[in-house]
Amino acid sequence: MALKATIYKAELVVSDMDRNHYATYPLTIAQHPSETLQRMMVRLVMFALYADEHLEFTKGLSTDDEPDLWAQALTGDIDLWIELGQPDDKRLRKASHKAKQLVLCGYQGNAFDVWWKNNANACRQIPQLTVLQLDDEIASQLEGMVERTMRLQANIQDGTLWFGNNEQTLEITPTRLQAGTSS
Prior knowledge:
Layout: E1 6-16, E2 21-31, H1 37-49, E3 55-57, E4 69-72, E5 78-84, H2 89-96, E6 99-106, H3 110-124, E7 129-133, H4 136-142, E8 149-157, E9 160-164, E10 169-172, E11 175-178
Parallel strand pairs: 1-8, 5-6, 6-7
Antiparallel strand pairs: 1-2, 3-4, 4-5, 7-11, 8-9, 9-10
């Protein structure tokens, strides 16, 4: 029998001064059986950084042709494709033909550093790809915020995200390894 996803609920209040975007998002997050809590929380951070009324979690790990998050226009066009981790460069190239803007977020410390060293040239061939890296310590601390029902705040100003709950707030400034252009 296949293992089922674990369901988490989050109320995410986003105040993004950089984009002048203010909203509250009631989110349901399905943690795939093979997904770590750290990865799930990185998905929430990426949602906060790119929050939009059309942004949504996808089937992610259980589907090869979908990213972790995406924003689709009403026409069905993919405006934003967000990947986590260390995807194959072929996957990123394929996604570049489907989406106007791509974002890759690495968060696994040395493993991602090695991946970037081996894949930076291929990534630079994708003009609409932005590559971000989260500090490994921050990614680890995100796990401490996990609860089955979460109330989270995300305040963004000058490229820095303050992400937290009533007990803890983390200051997150992703390192931008590559700045993409949107088409």
